[in-house]
Amino acid sequence: MSKQKVGVIGLGSMGIGVARSLLAKGFEVHACDVRAEAVANFAKEGGVAAASPAALGAAVPIAIVLVVNADQTEQVLFGANGAASTLAPGSIVIASSTVAPEYAIDLGRRLAEKGLLMIDAPVSGGAARAAKGEMTIMGSGVPEAFDKAKAVLDAIATKVYRLGDVAGPGSKVKMINQLLAGVHIAAACEAMALGIKAGVDPKTLYEVISNSAGASWMFQNRVPHILEGDYTPLSAVNIFVKDLGIVLDSAKKMPFPLPITASAHQLYLAAAAHGHGFEDDSAVVKVFQALTGIELPTKA
User: Is domain 172-292 annotated with CATH 1.10.1040.10?
Assistant: First the structure.
């Protein structure tokens, strides 16, 4: 019995987890990335290397796009050697990058003009849950697309929300999720910096807050990076420069005020301006180090 084929475009921290999860669950996984070494390494694990998005599109009926932003999504689908030119009519594009809702709506329309189905499917859960096939998918799209992609969606996520029959609602819900995630990380960094300035042992502070009402998922997930002095990027500062920028731009068009989001966005911008844009997003705490001279834990 032949394996079901699926493609993954983008082998970053989330994409590689998704690709490996699909592979572990018996799919024939085709993959491509701008980094040839990432594709070669995945091929050694049992995946199928695709030389380009177009080559991938010609080989699979379902393509998951997990690149950084709208520009990259545009390039891998409609640029030179884009997958939209080779995917067979009726194929499905699972668009999982965080993009502005209006872009998702337009993307769905343009893919439909080519006879392709799209699921507007932003994801949440981080690299660890992606690797376990335990993501949350905030999906919207025609029922036919969900039906055809059910096995794939079930393989990569434990929660698949169907938020509407057209593209757009998925990206709108992801926008709200990113608002909260970005604010929570910024608040966690501010709180830890204040605690350190006040002379509280940071490990003790983390333990107490983790078991108190002030805790959040992001506090418990990101503060260990600060405690270990390890800012290896799982999700980089620049991701939230982008994502909170999307939130603010979208709200401005409504119009809708977002004072807390705007403040958090400034912290990510400040971290990027200090040269930390490609570090883990918990590096926002280094802004407070620069402002107040606190001594942060260092990597052992």
Answer: yes
